[in-house]
Every structure is written in structure tokens, then in C-alpha cells.
Write a structure and sequence with these properties.
Elements (H helix, E strand, L loop, with lengths): L1 E8 L3 H19 L3 E5 L4 H7 L5 H8 L3 E6 L9 H13 L4 E7 L17 E7 L9 E4 L7 E4 L5 H18 L4 E6 L7 H13 L6 E6 H10 L6 E4 L1 H14 L7 E5 L5 E5 L16 H13 L3 H18 L12 H14 L1
Parallel strand pairs: 1-2, 1-3, 3-12, 5-10, 8-9, 8-10
Antiparallel strand pairs: 4-5, 4-11, 6-7, 11-12
The protein binds 3-isopropylmalic acid and manganese (II) ion.
Manganese (II) ion binds next to α8.
């Protein structure tokens, strides 16, 4: 019996989460597992009404859950940074979700902006460190607001944090069992302290994984290769900031934020799964947003919970609907409404 915390959140979050939960219900019925959903109204609306972001008591409740399923956080009337830091980053840090897992796969029937690239070429996974680097909030101002102002934003990299991320990536690459190539994406020619340590730890851990080919690419170069030769990549491991940047690029080549999902994973604790699209205020309430990413987040959640067959059923159903039923992956152009996409996926799962 799984206990799943659901955070529909802001904007189109609730609309896409609803469709993800349809897929979950269909697959649970098919595979015979049961679950309980616990709803949390975190997000911009609650913040504006009560000032609450992510109260400690809710974090404690999350710790008792099997997983967290989130729609979107972000509100046009709240100053940038408040909800992101107060909810998303707090959740990552407090629950020690030290991996951000971003599968990048072009499904058949989905259009990529890359000319002459097909599903066989775009199929890799980014393992992003999710609790350190430039995201810790370390730093500060001196003489703020004056002409002598100094602003410092420090990248914190601990041996322990780097090593656990790199080990996760090697294990993941082995388990994935494809090309068995792990690329460390860094900037060793400039970040001669932080990425020197990353590179040393990477080389050390690589010696324990003789079946996996270790590889390196500078972050700027990886942006070129991802566009020119995405087929070179199997698994990429990188730090928090670089991972944030390259996974937006990666989302575009797999068909856009309407299909890209991510997992904030604590392999020993509670993980959170979300679509990458954000709250998309301009599409809110119209039933035209693409729910595929949110449904793919359910697929990922099932796979991390160890329900591999169930995850496969969801993946196959997504593949079917994008190939057979959807005209486009962009909001308003799908040829189906948000809820119709979810209904079809639930039907495909039921018929499988
Ligand atoms: C992401 C998002 C977040 C990040 C923001 C919303 C804080 O862009 O999950 O990639 O930068 O990590
Ligand atoms: Mn991002």
C-alpha cells in the first residue's frame, strides 16, 4: 500500500496532475497494487492567503509517504524566487533528494527541432546533483545598494555529496544496460577547485565500474553536442547548476516541456516527481495543456517505487497516444484536450 502525497500546485498543475492520477488508477487496477492519496494545497494561492510556503509539519508528513507527486509551483503575482526557494528547493534540501533525474527520450510520433534526428538518436538520461553547488544559498552581499557593492554566490561541493551523486550515476548507467557510457559534464578547465574534485572522485569511482566507459565533456561543448550528436550520450552526470541548464536544452530536443518529466530522488528516502513544464498561467483552466510530462512523471515514480511492470505499461500507453492520437505536443495544438489525452492513456493501460 503506497501513500502518495499529491501537490497539484499552481496554474495548470492541477489539470495535468488529474491526468497523471488517471494513469496511476488504471495501472494500479491492472497490476493489483493499492495506494492512498493525500492532497496538499501548497503553492502561490496558499502563500498569498496565509504566508505559508512549506511548513515543517508538512515536511514531517512527507517523510512518512512513499512518494510525492507535484504539478507545478509558480504564480504570476508572487515575486520570483519566493516559491521556488520556499517550496521546491526546501523540499529538495529537507528531504535530501540529492539526485535530479531527467530522462531525455524522443518518442516516435513526437517532433524534435533537430533536423535528421530520430528516436534512436535521442535517448539518454541526465543525473543532476540536486542539493549542493550554487543552489545552497551560500554567499551574501557587502555594502548592498552602494557603488561599492560586492555580491558573492558560492558553489559548495562536498566530497560526500559529489561521491554519492557520481555513484548513483554509475549504478544507474549499469542498471540501464544500454551503451554503458557515463559522461561527466563539467568545466575542469576553469572551475579548477570544484570540478577538480568532481573529476578526481569520478575517476576513482570509475575504477570500481570496469564495465562502464567513463567519458568527459565540458558543459559548453555538451550544449553543442546535444544539438549536433545527441546519439553520443547514454548517461550524463553533472553538478546542480549545469544540470539545470542542460536539462532545459535536453527537454527541447525530446519534444518540449510538455513531454519532459523529472524526479527529485532520495534513494534512501522520499522522492518527488514532477513535469518540467511549470505553471503556464496563460493556459490555465482551458483544458489545452499537454499532460504527457505529468503522466511520464507517474511512470518515473512507479519505476523508482520498484513497480517496473507498471511503469512499462504507462510508458507504452504514452507511446501509443503520442504516435496515434496526438497531432502536436504543444498546448492548444494537440488535436485533443488535456483530459482526452489522459482518458486515452488510461484506456490503453486498461486494454494492455
Ligand atoms: C528545475 C527548476 C528549478 C531549478 C527552479 C524552479 C528553482 O528550474 O527544477 O529545473 O532551478 O532547479
Ligand atoms: Mn530548471
Amino acid at each position: 500500500m503506497y501513500k502518495i502525497a499529491v501537490v497539484p500546485g499552481d496554474g495548470t498543475g492541477p489539470e495535468v496532475v488529474r491526468e497523471g492520477l488517471k494513469a496511476l488508477a488504471a495501472v494500479a487496477q491492472k497490476k493489483g497494487f493499492s495506494y492512498e492519496l493525500i492532497n496538499y494545497d501548497l503553492g502561490g494561492e496558499r502563500y498569498m492567503k496565509t504566508g505559508d510556503l512549506l511548513p515543517e509539519s508538512i515536511i514531517s508528513e512527507f517523510r512518512q509517504c512513499s512518494a510525492i507527486y507535484l504539478g507545478a509551483i509558480g504564480h504570476p503575482d508572487v515575486k520570483p524566487g519566493i516559491l521556488e526557494k520556499g517550496i521546491l528547493l526546501t523540499m529538495r534540501f529537507e528531504l535530501d533528494q540529492y539526485i535530479n533525474l531527467r530522462p531525455v527520450k524522443l518518442l516516435s510520433g513526437v517532433e524534435t527541432p533537430l533536423k535528421d534526428k530520430c528516436p534512436a538518436d535521442i535517448d539518454f538520461v541526465v543525473v543532476r546533483e540536486n542539493t549542493e553547488g550554487l543552489y545552497t544559498g551560500a554567499g551574501g552581499f557587502l555594502k548592498k545598494g552602494t557603488l561599492d557593492e560586492v555580491a558573492i554566490q558560492e558553489s559548495i561541493n562536498t566530497r560526500k555529496g559529489v561521491e554519492r551523486c557520481i555513484r548513483y550515476a554509475f549504478d544507474f548507467c549499469r542498471k540501464r544496460g544500454q551503451e554503458k557510457k557515463l559522461t561527466f559534464c563539467g568545466k575542469t578547465n576553469v572551475l579548477t577547485y570544484a570540478h577538480d574534485m568532481w573529476q578526481r572522485v569520478f575517476n576513482e569511482v570509475a575504477r570500481e565500474y570496469s564495465d562502464i566507459k567513463p567519458d568527459y565533456a565540458n558543459v559548453d561543448a555538451i550544449c553543442m553536442w546535444m544539438v549536433k550528436n545527441p546519439e553520443w550520450f547514454d548517461v550524463i552526470v553533472t553538478d546542480n547548476m549545469f544540470g539545470d541548464i542542460i536539462t532545459d536544452l535536453a527537454a527541447m530536443i525530446q519534444g518540449g516541456v510538455g513531454v519532459a518529466a523529472g524526479g527529485n530522488i532520495n534513494p534512501e528516502g522520499v522522492s518527488m516527481f514532477e513535469p518540467m513544464g511549470g505553471s503556464a498561467p496563460k493556459y490555465t483552466g482551458q483544458n489545452i495543456i499537454n499532460p504527457i510530462a505529468a503522466i511520464a512523471a507517474v511512470q518515473m515514480m512507479l519505476s523508482v517505487l520498484g513497480q517496473d511492470d507498471a511503469a512499462k505499461l504507462v510508458e507504452d500507453a504514452i507511446q501509443k497516444v503520442v504516435l496515434k492520437d496526438m497531432k502536436s505536443m504543444s498546448a492548444g495544438n494537440m488535436g485533443l484536450s488535456t483530459s482526452q489525452v489522459g482518458d486515452r492513456i488510461a484506456d490503453y493501460i486498461a486494454q494492455a
